[in-house]
Design a protein that fits this description.
Elements lengths: L1 H29 L21 E13 L4 E6 L6 E2 L4 E5 L5 H33 L5 H33 L2 E3 L4 E6 L6 E2 L8 E16 L2 H4 L7 E6 L2 E9 L17
Antiparallel strand pairs: 1-8, 2-4, 2-7, 3-6, 4-5, 6-8, 9-10
């Protein structure tokens, strides 16, 4: 009786171990790990640099005046399309028109005097060839002719200068574009000058835009001309624009905290 019990005591644990191992193996087959495989090959690692900037036209022209005067006419409005040579702004020509008229009158007078002296010189040469006048008289008329030629050239130069100043009272569009800003109105003063003239109007070609971006000095070394870029604009939240890096500045800009961009 005791031996049977002993045998039972030994047999029961063996049965439990077999059952546990069998359950573990069946459970392991049901919960197998899924592994994805791919062929080894060379690929490019994409490194992205994030930065903020501003969008601006690729080509933009500021219309300024080289003379000072009152604006008498503006032929376009902001948002209008302009073409090369189109009249944009007129400036009062009262102080430039009289000088042009005076220069024109001097040209006519000098040309008339030149024709007169030239006729006299031809007659003098004829008389000299016939030995009816002295050589001194011939030299005098030739000198008068040279002086008349010089006066005519000077008058024409003054006319060109006056004509150039008068033409500056009419400002023309230098190229195709759209008027993006108007800073003056009719009746206001157009301040001219060669070094710091006042901007009267801005014309830009909006068909080609560029983005000027401030990149941190730690990231700019990872950028090369020709790299592609993704551009996100607040006005188009669901649209991504693509561009190409066309230029990298050679100098850095220092910020208030001492860092550079």
């Amino acid at each position: 009786m005791l031996s049977v019990l002993k045998k039972k005591k030994v047999w029961i644990p063996l049965v439990l171990i077999v059952l546990i191992i069998t359950g573990f193996l069946s459970r392991s087959r049901d919960e197998a790990i899924i592994v994805e495989m791919e062929t080894v090959k060379r690929k490019d690692i994409i490194h992205k640099v994030n930065a903020s900037g501003r969008i601006q036209p690729e080509q933009e022209v500021q219309i300024t005046s080289t003379i000072t005067g009152w604006i008498t006419e503006i032929t376009v409005l902001e948002g209008d399309t302009v073409h090369p040579g189109q009249h944009l702004i007129s400036i009062d020509e009262k102080q430039y028109r009289p000088r042009y008229n005076q220069a024109l009158s001097q040209v006519k007078s000098s040309e008339a005097n030149l024709r007169k002296v030239k006729s006299q010189m031809e007659r003098t040469k004829t008389l000299f060839s016939q030995k009816l006048i002295s050589e001194q008289e011939l030299e005098q008329i030739e000198a008068s002719y040279q002086m008349a030629v010089s006066q005519s050239e000077q008058a024409n130069a003054n006319l060109l200068s006056a004509e150039d100043e008068l033409s500056k009272t009419r400002l023309m569009a230098p190229k195709y574009g759209i008027v993006t800003s108007l800073t003056k109105e009719v009746g206001e003063m157009a301040v001219g000058g060669m070094f710091n003239p006042g901007v009267l109007m801005t014309v830009a070609d909006l068909s080609r835009m560029e983005v000027e971006v401030d990149v941190n000095e730690n990231d700019v070394v990872n950028i090369d001309v020709g790299d592609t870029s993704e551009i996100e604009i607040d006005a188009f939240p669901d649209t991504v624009f693509y561009g190409v890096v066309s230029e990298i500045a050679h100098t850095a800009q220092s910020l208030n905290m001492g860092s550079q961009q």
